[in-house]
Amino acid sequence: MAYSLGLTLYTLASRREAASLPRPPRPEGPVVWLHAPGAASARTMAELARRIDEELGLAAVLSGMEPPPHLNVPHQPLGGDTPVEVAEFLDHLRPDLAVFAEGEVRPVLVDALAARKVPMMMVEARAPVLPPGGRRWPGLMRRTLDRFAHILTVDEAAARAFRRAGVSDHVKVAGRMEEPHLVLPCTEAERAEITRTIAGRPVWLAAALPEAEEEAVIAAHRAALHLSHRLLLIVVPEVPDRGPALARRMEDLGLAVAIRAREEDILPETEVYIADNPEEYGLWYRLAPICFAGGSLTVGAIRDPLEAASLGSALIHGPRSGAHGPIFARLLARKATLPVPHGRTLGDALADLLSPDRVARLAGEAWDVASDGSEVTDRVLALVERLMEER
């Protein structure tokens, strides 16, 4: 009775004019709907969507925060938690299973899913959160959470938060799910050829280097050449057309430069190789044991740091993480990167990583972070398959 009253009062309080949202077509066949309210869960749910598609042969659609475009996951806008908006969303998508992340609790939506007999589960749960004003209504949180078949939390503290909200039997500590595997491709024959060309030389990469950070990278490389005279710097400029001007700037400082776009070879005396094709990052990450995250000193890191981590490249970066804050935080928590406070210390960090043991340890820790959570995602995938089979 308390729940029914609470839901009724919450629904009345949250009524508002609902605008119809443009919606992509619904996929054919059964649909697993994933909801990710935050940027971090958008990435892990995108990886879950990929595995649902590839391993279970089911369509997966994401709502909430959109993942990075290259992850290529179908997205549907959700709208607010009002009866009109919820009905419009569910009538269009007709999900066969709903998987929520983080802990966002939408009482009207959950009640409507239960009425349609759509099974629900929550993954990567951190704490239950009702929409603004929802906590004032009696029984609303507990009864809404009771509708979930499984609630998998990231840790024991999160599990306690759900137990305090009144649920216990179906709350389990599972851990964090895996990030998307960003193993960028490359042409193996080309990688083998360049590997033979550089013949065991130490290599570092400046990935997506903006013009504002060129001076810091050049200074770091010139300083490191005094410690390792065979050191090769590969630069991928943020703007490909910047290559020739950057080459002139480096040559004026006495550096020997080759430009890939001109089909210039890496010679024994080449100190800098400007690789100005942004489609070849998979090649350069494989060749460079050390990678500087371009943009991280000024505008914010431009490339996803897990691209380098997934291919065994140890990462140096500045204090500005850009759109990749949660990933850098995880890497830093595991001491899997080498942060620098400003460009003047980039050379010191590079010198530190010229030690093979040091770079191997850092790259190994980063790879562990990149591959974290696969067992948790396996578990979620098995639950998805079971719930779909039980329908």
From TrEMBL:
Q: What is its EC number?
A: 2.4.99.12
Please give the superkingdom of this protein's source. Answer: Bacteria
Provide the alphabetized UniProt keywords: Cell membrane, Lipopolysaccharide biosynthesis, Membrane, Transferase
Q: Which reaction does it catalyse?
A: lipid IVA (E. coli) + CMP-3-deoxy-beta-D-manno-octulosonate = alpha-Kdo-(2->6)-lipid IVA (E. coli) + CMP + H(+)
The molecular function terms in GO held by this entry are: Kdo transferase activity
Name of the top EC class for this enzyme: transferase
The pathway noted for it is: Bacterial outer membrane biogenesis; LPS core biosynthesis
Record keyword Cytoplasm present: no
Query: Gene Ontology cellular component?
Result: plasma membrane
One protein family per Pfam: Glycos_transf_N
Per the record, the GO terms for biological process are: lipid A biosynthetic process; lipopolysaccharide core region biosynthetic process
3-deoxy-D-manno-octulosonic-acid transferase N-terminal domain ranges (all copies)? 26-176
Protein's cellular compartments = Cell membrane
What does the function comment of this entry state? Involved in lipopolysaccharide (LPS) biosynthesis. Catalyzes the transfer of 3-deoxy-D-manno-octulosonate (Kdo) residue(s) from CMP-Kdo to lipid IV(A), the tetraacyldisaccharide-1,4'-bisphosphate precursor of lipid A.
The family this protein is said to belong to:
Belongs to the glycosyltransferase group 1 family.
Q: Which PANTHER family match?
A: 3-DEOXY-D-MANNO-OCTULOSONIC ACID TRANSFERASE, MITOCHONDRIAL-RELATED (PTHR42755:SF1), 3-DEOXY-MANNO-OCTULOSONATE CYTIDYLYLTRANSFERASE (PTHR42755)
Q: What is this protein called?
A: 3-deoxy-D-manno-octulosonic acid transferase
Which species is the source of this protein? Answer: Falsirhodobacter algicola
